[in-house]
Amino acid sequence: MNFNNVSKRIEKIKFALLSPDEIRKMSQVRVITPDTYDDDGYPIERGLMDLHMGVIEPGLKCATCGGKVDECPGHFGHIELAMPVVHIGFIKEIKTMLDSSCKACGRVKLTDDEVNTYRKTINNMNFESDDPEIIDLSLKKITEIAVQRTICPHCSAESPKVILDKPTTFREGGIKITPKEIRERLERIPDNDLLFFGLNMSAARPEWMILTALPVPPIDVRPSITLETGERSEDDLTHKLVDIIRISQRLRESRDNGSPQLIIEDLWDLLQYHTTTYFDNQTAGIPPARHRSGRALKTLVQRLKGKEGRFRANLSGKRVNFSSRSVISPEPFLSMNEVGIPEIAARELTVPVLVNSFNVDKMKEWIKRGSTPRTPAGKYLAGINYLIRPDGRRIKITDQNAEINSDRVDIGWTVERQMTEGDIVLFNRQPSLHRMSMMAHTVRVLPGLTFRFNLSDCTPYNADFDGDEMNLHVIQSEESRAEARIIMKVQEQILSPRFGGPIIGAIHDHITSLFLLTHNNPLYTEGETLHIISYIDVNKLPEPEIKDNKKYYHGRDIFSLILPEGLNAKFKSHLCSGSRGKCEYEDTIEDSYVVINNGKLIHGTIDDESVGPFSGVIVDKIFRKFGPEAASKFVDNVTRLAVGFLSYRGFSTGIKDYDIPKDAISRIEEISNETLEKINKLVDAFRSGQLQQLPGRSIEDTLEVEILSETGSVRDESGKIASSYLGLNDPSVIMARSGARAKMLNIAEVAGMVGQQSVRGGRLNRGYANRTLSHFKENDLSAYARGFIKSSYRSGLNPTEYFFHSIGGREGLVDIAVRTSRSGYMQRRLINAFEDLKVDDERRVQDTVGSMVQFKYGEDGIDPTRSDEGETVDVDYVAYDEFGDEK
Amino acid sequence: MSKFNVLEHEIVPEHHLVPVDEEMSVLKKLNIARDNLPKISINDPAIKALEEIHGKLEPGRIIKIIRKSPTAGYYEYYRVVVKSVI
Q: How many helices and strands, by DSSP H and E, does chain A display?
């Protein structure tokens, strides 16, 4: 940043009211014609496009300053309104002033004593540095006293209550006060009393809140656009100003030739309407002014307000160069730190390189290659798109001028070089809900048209490949590149600050694959092993087991190849949950207790708990003990090993995964009939009043609770029966038990029974009067009539069941839709509240003013990212890692 | 109405008045200006309760508060008494 050539520095800003005189003084032209251009397309004099207000067409010169299009800043004009109108932005202020000042003498309705004491308190306030909210409140308290008083303490005149008839009409005892009268009353308020309204008498007079002259903004603020057809289209503001001038003119004529009062009042109201909508076209109580097409006009307030307004769209957020967007797709052979960029994007995106004595020769060489160089074999090479001369001029490099410019370039020039392997870029997927939504990757230029990345990066971005698009930004400065490499690179973001564990890890098939590779430690021949190992970056083989003079290798030993030496861990695998065994080391039936000793997997099955995102014990331990480099290398190897092994072994799933024997089906049928029977008994008990009421519940609720627990247990029971026939040789079960995808519950739904559907936590009960569907009798409380599904997905649902299932399914969809919009708004407010808080070297949290928020970050000074799932340190693990299992 | 001391309620954290001669050392320890401390209104019930013990408190006095914290066990921090607005 260069602070030396700042031409002007803002020292202070003063907010004041524009007086009509001031409006006329700053005006370059009084606009009297509601037209813009004549038939030749030349601006009409004293019209809304008068040349005194600036130029937007090349060739013409400003009539005020003589500048051409880019030189003239634009100048204000003004409109003399035929009759005064209220300014919509000051309605509240006008109301308080009318209310608290005397109708007759204009003084504030405060006694002399009150005036003296309050004047002192107000003089003690500092309008520049005190909290404006507090100033507002104190002033309001003072004016409130005056408002309550009906008799003026100075002239004893009575002031009836003024009522604001929204949006712009004031009434006094039912009779309308015209803006002209309002203006006269405000004029009577003496300068000395202004400070009770918070007005600075040197900056404002209250009558200026009633408009008699209206500033016309420069043409540059409301440029007209020429369509391809040659037709001119005016800005919305110009349209509105046309309306104002037109009505003002008619009003003046009617007034001058003595038209009936009624007509004049109507026109006056219309003028008020147009000026109101000119400022704010969303004023409550009046219909918005519309374009001929029916679109509401975008007037002054609309330009500033809301998400598309000047502040949020143009000042807080800006469009950037050196960025691109494309569809994403997976590429398991890229590292998690890399991103694949299509050639077409790489050629367009550039990195600026400052030419210095060290690289000048190389740069000359590069420029000579032109803008689309390739190796003789046709491989991508980075070209040069632009040269920037020391004076800031840009030269585009083409194949024709490459040679000449290569000679001209010298130290001090900047060369805009195309992307090349190893460049660092920022990669982002919206919605950017956490810091891992934008991470730094190194570039790989690949054939094709999509951005590609390792599948382990899907979790932090929350991306999938069903058409998702992502954004990519090329970093332009050396400093930010260093920052990106050190703190934003994917490998630095493996641990999530949300829960202090890894958010990056193997997903789906990768978990299935490692499960199959390690579960019960299978054996592979030398050939198989070599094939599998060829996918990963290792140069050693595990210890073989010799059988019949042939070498065999264990799955666990193959996996151990990618574990760093010195890693120790001991934990229960995902397989453990839902296992019938004890899950202790001795439990060998399910092989679910993982033991890693000095980088060797001794026992257990690798699954979601070891390498998956959110749990990933191994990833976590590697990151903490060996650092981000080792952790990323491990995850890269996991993806490669998993893909290599699974594509060698083969894995498929299908409906036959859910085949269970006939007697199992009939047993499920049996228990479901029993449940129906039980539910019928409950309903009968309820009807005869014999149902035992549960504490704190009505009798109806009791019935529902009892039935829900019955339907819940029958679903669990049938799930148990079904899964007792489905073991770990069943692909669907492998996926569920390893944590790769789905839960055992889903398998129970497919093979056993779908069970009770619910809306808002209860059984279905809405639809027709006292029944869910017309297929049932009114007030039928039996299971089938209230959304119980006895079928399985495999056997298929009958029509009513299908309908109930859709009802239950819809609730989920609605929930998601409601949740996202609500949490989005919540997030926005949180970000706005926290955006300028800062943690300093002493771990104190302060805002930009210096006010203390927390004396120690999080009260304990612990970075949740480095914490062990929220706990400061896992002493047990540290001890185990150091000393092993010594008791 | 029977009066009771809010400071004795179990969910009200401990409030202590920092003696005037210790104020400087506290501010120095925290390396902070008095204005930047979190504020507590002079009308706060806890301040009223402290006034029962120490007599009238002037705005600008520093209160030490010790409260339970889910992360740190006990968390000790300071507030400065300010005059109330409304």
A: 24, 32
